[in-house]
Automatic annotation (TrEMBL):
The lineage of its organism: Eukaryota, Viridiplantae, Streptophyta, Embryophyta, Tracheophyta. One of its GO terms (molecular function) is glycosyltransferase activity. Its main location: membrane. This is OLC1v1005255C4. The keyword Transmembrane applies. Residues 31-258 form the Hydroxyproline O-arabinosyltransferase-like domain. It is a single-pass membrane protein. It comes from the Eukaryota.
Length: 260
């Protein structure tokens, strides 16, 4: 297999190879419930301690469903990443400059990304990861940054850390589809079920209000979703229909789904 096509899938919360990382919470008293602070720290330990033969690493999440075979979207020194509309370095320049001084270049050098999904060379991630930890900690310790960036603080930290090392990403909108806002999954590689999908029986989105029909992963935090979830009503986007069909396909093929 060519080296550029060899991947190692690393879940953000549960790293592959059954690597058990030392919890950052025990060493940092200021995490204040921000569990995502463990994400960059876990990667630092994993890269230091695990034996990784692969040249490229795919950073992905447990709520990613693969729609199509994923090629290596990166190119040499340019990792591939998905652009998030809510990561806005330019609009937050006053805050960003605390961590990315003017001598490092324009704020436009910072990509509108998080660390997932990302395909990146292992050697590049080894350089970025410790800086990613340090920037995340500094951001969390700064009240203005913490309030402004909130839950996506660590995503900004990855983007800033990458730029500090002169690494810019190839931005691929086709990397991922996020229903209900993205209406189709065609020609996309990953389906990310991060948002709740709420609709009335006319097929109209009722986002922010529990719908007559809904699929939201937050409804299943205490136990797995049931088998054979009902399909959404007519008129609901293809992306939502595909999401439910793929969840149903998985649960129907996993043994003892509802008892384990």
């Amino acid at each position: 297999m060519p080296s550029q096509d060899r991947y190692l899938l690393a879940g953000l919360c549960y790293l592959s190879l059954l690597h058990i990382h030392h919890n950052l919470f025990f060493f940092l008293s200021f995490y204040q419930g921000y569990v995502v602070l463990n994400r960059p720290w876990a990667f630092v330990q994993w890269l230091e301690k695990a034996s990784i033969e692969e040249e490229y690493i795919l950073m992905a999440e447990p709520d990613h469903i693969f729609l199509n075979p994923l090629p290596n979207l990166s190119y040499q020194d340019y990792p591939a990443a998905f652009p998030f509309f809510y990561i806005q370095p330019k609009e937050n320049e006053n805050i960003i400059r605390k961590y990315f001084p003017e001598e490092n270049g324009p704020v436009s050098n910072i990509d509108p990304i998080g660390n997932s999904p990302v395909i990146i060379r292992k050697d590049l991630l080894e350089k970025i990861a410790p800086t990613w930890v340090n920037v995340s900690v500094r951001m969390k310790n700064d009240n203005e940054t913490d309030i402004t960036f909130g839950w996506v603080l660590e995503m900004y930290a990855y983007a800033v850390a990458s730029a500090l090392h002169g690494v810019q990403h190839i931005l691929r909108k086709d990397f991922m589809s996020q229903p209900p806002w993205d209406l189709e999954t065609k020609k996309k590689f990953i389906l990310h079920y991060t948002y709740g999908c709420d609709y009335n029986m006319k097929g109209e989105l009722t986002y922010g209000k529990i719908g007559e029909w809904r699929f939201d992963k937050r409804s299943h935090t205490s136990k797995p979703p049931p088998k054979n979830i009902s399909l959404p009503p007519p008129g609901v986007p293809e992306s939502v229909v595909t999401l439910v069909k793929m969840v149903n396909e998985a649960t129907s093929n996993l043994p003892n789904w509802e008892t384990t």
